[in-house]
Design brief:
It is a single chain. This protein has 7 helices and no strands. By secondary structure, it is mostly helical. It folds into 2 domains: about 50 residues, no CATH class; about 80 residues, AhpD-like, CATH 1.20.1290. Helix 3 packs antiparallel against helix 4. The longest helix has 30 residues. The protein is globular, with a radius of gyration of 15 Å. The N and C termini lie far apart (about 40 Å).
């Protein structure tokens, strides 16, 4: 598969996870300057790695939540909370990841992750509603 095909496959998957409008807005916001980075994200992150058969996207989402919290990347964490929900992760599953974050990354990281999760999901859904 050439990079153009990887790009298209990744863009399609990315839009399925995050929604057409969110992906298009992110790409527009970075304009021509950010086009090379968006290509890397589409082709390699989503067209290649996220499209591999070894894990389903629900599991990938949970892993990414842990990594973005550990790396203190709040903007990416919030985006990936919404993506995790689109990939079928329940509020309970996300909460379990947040508890792991508390143990392995510390309470401050878990507090931030909890706050960002409530912001991304909305208070009612974060409280256990689906």
């Amino acid at each position: 598969m050439d990079t153009r095909e990887l790009h298209q496959r990744g863009l399609k998957l990315r839009k399925r996870i995050f929604g057409d409008e969110a992906v298009e807005a992110r790409m527009r916001a970075l304009g021509d300057f950010g086009a090379p980075l968006q290509h890397i994200i589409n082709a390699y992150a989503y067209g290649d790695i996220w499209s591999r058969p070894g894990l389903d996207n629900k599991i990938r989402s949970l892993v990414v939540l842990g990594m973005t919290a550990a790396l203190n990347r709040p903007a990416e964490f919030g985006v990936h909370v919404r993506g995790a929900r689109a990939n079928g992760c329940s509020a309970e599953e996300i909460r379990e990841v947040l508890l792991l974050i508390a143990m392995y990354c510390g309470i401050p990281a878990a507090n931030d992750a909890h706050r960002l999760t409530v912001e991304a999901m909305g208070p009612g859904k974060a409280a256990g509603g689906e």
